[in-house]
Amino acid sequence: VQLQESGGGLVHTGDSLRLSCSASGGAFSNDFSDRAMGWFRRFPGTERQFVAAIYLSNTYYADSVKGRFTISRDDAKNTVYLRSDTLLPEDTAVYYCAGQGNHGSFLHPERTYEYGFWGLGTQVTVSE
Burial, 101: exposed, middle or buried (Cβ in 10 Å; 0-12, 13-18, 19+)? Predict the structure, then answer.
């Protein structure tokens, strides 16, 4: 299973950006629509922090991004997106895509143990 992020880069405060994560390989891509998908980010010197997740028709957001970020998915393309229309310098981080490892309940979207597959990350830098 491979999760490949794209869309990161250098932007200015207030700019919009859309990250994409495409899933391929194994049974994961065959039942992608049944899997929860999430986005996490890591600031320098810290652990990964939850940003957003989507499971079936439900979406979940960290308080720090609620109202500014939107997670969505295109199951026909095995792809999940994270869009922000109001980026701030404090959003500068490496953003990681994550996929649910096992079928079934998805009780804690903010916890890394809910996810069994991870991308390598894409850097987002927001300048003032």
Answer: middle
Terminal CA-to-CA distance of the chain, rounded, Å? 37
Listed as own residue / partner, the contacts of 4-8 with beta carbons closer than 8 Å and 24 or more positions apart are 4/97, 4/119, 4/120, 5/95, 5/96, 5/97, 5/119, 5/120, 5/121, 5/122, 6/122, 7/122, 8/95, 8/122, 8/123, 8/124
Tokens at 82, concatenated: 């994270």
User: How much is the pLDDT for 104?
Assistant: 78
Q: What is the DSSP letter of 45?
A: T
Mean pLDDT estimate for the chain: 95
Q: pLDDT tens-digit profile of 71-81?
A: 999 999 999 99
Contact by Cβ (8 Å): 3, 97: yes
Tokens found for residue 16? 């919009």
